Amino acid sequence: MPLSDRLGGDLPRRPVSLELDDIQATVLRYRPEPYYGTHIMLHVSDPRGGREVLRRLAPHVGSAADWWRGDDTWIAVAISHTGMVAIGTPEPSLQSFPEAFRQGMAARADQLRDHGANDPRYWDSPFGSGRIHLWISIFSDTEARWHAAMETARQQYQGLSGVSVLEMHDFGAQPGDLNPLGYKDGIGQPAIEGGGIAPLPGQGRPIKAGEFVLGYPGEAGVPLPMPHPDVLGRNGTFVGIRKYQSRVGAFNRFLQANARSEEERELLAAKLIGRWRSGSPLTLTPGQDDPKLGADPLRNDDFTYADDPRGLRVPLGSHMRRMNPRDTRMAQLADVNLHRIVRRSTGYGAPYDPNATSDAADEVPRGIYFIFLSAKAMATMEFLQQEWINSGNFMDLGPERDPNVGLQEEGAVFTIPKEPVRHRVHGIETFNVLRGGEYLFLPGLTALRWLAEQQGGHA
């Protein structure tokens, strides 16, 4: 259901300063609950066919107009740099994109700390090959509308010369709307200035729109650099996609090895993330889970860390506190608002199995497409990977890494502050292994049409 319905009615309105009808829905519209959908990866060998796909799809791509009460089924379209080349985008425009985007995620493995098990050599095909040119995502709140939107998308690309499907990957809500490790996710999105509604409780002040949408002032007071000409860059943004395989067996073995009862295991699981499985935050419910609180979007993100500076409730190294430190005093100062991302992650595969402990359970196809959007998505993700995910220095935690998506080394530990003595949990493993990734550009709707018209004509 739309966000306004989830919150029990109309939301407090604020002035709209963004061109919402030209911005793709995915940028502002929250993922449906429950959700169903498919990611479609296309390859283009004929520029005319590639441009024709964009021309046909453009009228069906959802916009962010009235995003808080809009349709919960939409189609989104993004393009890789090799895709820009494949459809015949003019060379000056190609060169105006950031270097990291032009190189692609696989080539940025060193900057992203994608080594060891996460090395692009081990990624699933076709990730990292440069063959993914167009990326279509369908989001829906019902199976029937999902299938209808899928058919709409299919009609636009099927049978076109030089356009082929590389991969189609269904995704959707697991029982209880949980992710493959058993947690409710998608909580805690940033508030974007000019989007039309007031921040939700706990979101803090709205962040300048230019941090997320190109063509508007960012936190520094000026727009970020964007692709040229302006019609191509304005109202677009960048997308990072990272496909993770969840190692459920390793995760369950870790909980069992370090906790003696189900209650202790659930508390340890909550300490790793910063929330109970239901989404209820440890800041508000440190002693036991509160599923009603976890399900309430007006309460489940309404907190600060002001009264928990040492991490006695929420460990400093927990996933949630790393990805959004809020008002935590950090050893290495950083403006948190400069490193926020819009998240539209999608789970796939088998649901979480609390009884799975074998090595074979680690290879069952299930995991997350971690999807993040930002006007500087490449730089932001490289910062997060280097400083907040695969290091602990910014919280005085030394070599400790994010317990959820960090690439763990042999002998890795996780620190749980306690009184009088902290508790260090040993044997933490990599619970989510990277299986692919891409950097994409999500054009505005006017830009989609502009790209379709380049080089004079259609197929």
What share of residues is helical?
10-25%
Radius of gyration: 21 Å
Helix/strand/pairing category:
alpha+beta
* Number of separate domains: 2
Largest sheet: 5 strands, antiparallel
- Termini gap: 38 Å
Number of strands: 13
User: Percent of residues in beta strands?
Assistant: 15-25%
Inertia-based shape = globular
Mean pLDDT: 95
Order of helices and strands: HEHEHEHHHHEHEEHEHHHHEEEHEEEH
Q: What is the number of helices? A: 15
Low-confidence stretches: none
Family: Belongs to the DyP-type peroxidase family.
Cofactor: heme b
Domain DyP dimeric alpha+beta barrel: 74-156
GO molecular function: heme binding; metal ion binding; peroxidase activity
Quick description:
With 459 residues, the protein is α+β, with helices and mostly antiparallel strands. The two termini are 38 Å apart.
Sequence-ordered SSE layout with sheet pairings:
Elements: H1 3-6, E1 13-16, H2 25-28, E2 36-44, H3 47-57, E3 74-79, H4 81-86, H5 91-95, H6 99-103, H7 109-112, E4 134-140, H8 143-157, E5 163-172, E6 195-197, H9 230-233, E7 237-246, H10 248-258, H11 262-273, H12 291-294, H13 319-323, E8 342-343, E9 346-349, E10 366-374, H14 377-389, E11 413-416, E12 423-426, E13 432-442, H15 445-453
Antiparallel strand pairs: 1-6, 2-4, 2-5, 3-4, 7-10, 7-13, 8-10, 9-10, 11-12
Helix pairs in contact: 3-15
Describe this structure in words.
- Residues 74-156 form the DyP dimeric alpha+beta barrel domain.
- Keywords: Iron, Metal-binding, Oxidoreductase, Peroxidase.
- Belongs to the DyP-type peroxidase family.
- This is Peroxidase.
- It holds the Pfam family DyP_N.
- By secondary structure, the protein is α+β, with helices and mostly antiparallel strands.
- It has 2 domains: 3-239 and 440-453, no CATH class; 245-437, no CATH class.
- Helices cover 24% and strands 18% of the residues.
- It is built from 15 helices and 13 strands.
- The strands form 4 sheets. Strands 7, 8, 9, 10 and 13 form a 5-stranded antiparallel sheet that branches. A 4-stranded antiparallel sheet has the order 3-4-2-5.
- Helix 3 runs antiparallel to helix 15 (445-453).
- The longest helix has 15 residues, at 143-157.
- The chain is globular and about 70 Å long.
